[in-house]
Design the sequence.
């Protein structure tokens, strides 16, 4: 049941056609794990917290750096040097004290057991190796995974649904990590993170997820958006 405060907080969602209190209660009971609390993870976590997703698991072992602040809107200049996971937890609970937030300053391989409690995994990482590690877990545990990546003005979005769509390895398995620091304009992960949050809410409410089995590529400089169907790779070593 929703409290009076929750009904007031989520009023604009509750009056949305087809939404109502039942949908809000579904969000309240949902558990979502967010991996990476940077340019993508900032808007994802903020919007899911604001929307009333009841339990968030946050994973990031890094500390806030000054060079993060052109895009990582969870943090302020005073947070430089602090653990991202702890700063993020405080910021999200300050935004919405009605939810529960668990934060973990650990590398991916150190926190696998915790992920099993989540209904949905969201990849907000900045490296392919981590994404493919998450993908293997998602396939093995039959967990849905929303993934995104950015560089410059460009980005992609894709959702893996267990036993229904191709996995990330089908798409990126033969690629390798790029070395060094990659460029990014701050708004690119901001927009893409909001799209990840929107797809997450749709999944949790059993709505059609637009990026399931279809990969979205966009370029903000040319303002081009392309949604491409992805076929399962019959020789994929992860999901075949």
Sequence:
């Amino acid at each position: 049941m929703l409290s009076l405060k929750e009904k007031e907080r989520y009023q604009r969602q509750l009056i949305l056609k087809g939404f109502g209190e039942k949908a809000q209660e579904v969000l309240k009971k949902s558990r979502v794990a967010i991996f990476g609390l940077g340019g993508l993870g900032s808007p994802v976590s903020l919007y899911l917290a604001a929307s009333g997703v009841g339990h968030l698991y946050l994973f990031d072992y890094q500390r806030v750096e000054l060079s993060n602040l052109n895009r990582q809107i969870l943090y302020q200049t005073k947070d430089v040097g602090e653990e991202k996971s702890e700063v993020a937890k405080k910021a999200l609970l300050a935004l919405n004290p009605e939810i529960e937030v668990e934060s973990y300053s650990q590398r991916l391989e150190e926190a696998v057991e915790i992920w099993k409690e989540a209904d949905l995994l969201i990849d907000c990482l900045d490296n392919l190796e981590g994404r493919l590690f998450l993908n293997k877990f998602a396939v093995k545990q039959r967990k849905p995974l929303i993934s995104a990546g950015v560089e410059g003005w460009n980005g992609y979005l894709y959702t893996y649904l267990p036993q229904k769509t191709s996995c990330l390895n089908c798409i990126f398995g033969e690629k390798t990590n790029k070395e060094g620091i990659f460029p990014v304009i701050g708004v690119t992960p901001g927009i893409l993170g909001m799209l990840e949050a929107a797809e997450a809410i749709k999944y949790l409410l059993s709505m059609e997820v637009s990026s399931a089995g279809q990969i979205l590529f966009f370029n903000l400089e040319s303002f081009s958006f392309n949604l491409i169907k992805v076929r399962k790779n019959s020789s994929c070593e992860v999901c075949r």
